[in-house]
C-alpha cells in the first residue's frame, strides 16, 4: 500500500515536472540570416546549389561576394550586416569555412567587425 502511494506520488510529480519543463523551454527563433535567405533566396537556391561541384563560394570572402551579388541582382537593398547574416547562416548550414574569417566585413578592405 505504501509502495503504491509512493509510486503514485512519484508519477504525479514527474508528470508535473515534465509539463513545467515542456512549457518553460524557450522557443528557438531562426536567425536574421536564415529568415532573409528563406524569404528571398530559397525559391531559386535549394540545397543543391550549395553542394554542386561548380559552386562559386570557395571561401568566406567569395561567399560574401556571392551573397552581395545575388541580393543586388534581385533588386534587394540589404545592408552589410544583412549580407553578413545571410553569409553566416549559409556558412554554418553548408560551407563551414574557417571561423576566423567569418567576422570580416562585406565592404572593400579587410576591416574586422
Describe the structure.
There is one protein chain. The N and C termini lie far apart (67 Å). Helix 2 packs across helix 5 (80-95) and helix 4 crosses helix 5. The protein has a domain at 32-101. 59% of the residues lie in helices and 0% in strands. The protein is built from five helices and no strands. With 113 residues, the chain is mainly alpha-helical. The protein has helices spanning 2-24, 32-40, 47-51, 60-73, 80-95. The longest helix is centred in the N-terminal third of the chain and has 23 residues, at 2-24.
Short description:
The protein is mainly alpha-helical and 113 residues long. The protein is built from five helices and no strands.
Secondary structure topology:
Layout: H1 2-24, H2 32-40, H3 47-51, H4 60-73, H5 80-95
The span between the termini is 67 Å
**Low-pLDDT segments:** 19-23, 105-113
Helix content: 55-70%
Give the mean pLDDT. 74
Radius of gyration: 23 Å
Give the overall shape, derived from the CA principal axes.
elongated
The count of DSSP E runs of length 2 or more, i.e. the number of strands, is 0
Largest sheet: none
How many helical stretches? Answer: 5
- Order of secondary-structure elements: HHHHH
- Class per helix and strand makeup: mainly alpha
Strand residues, percent = under 5%
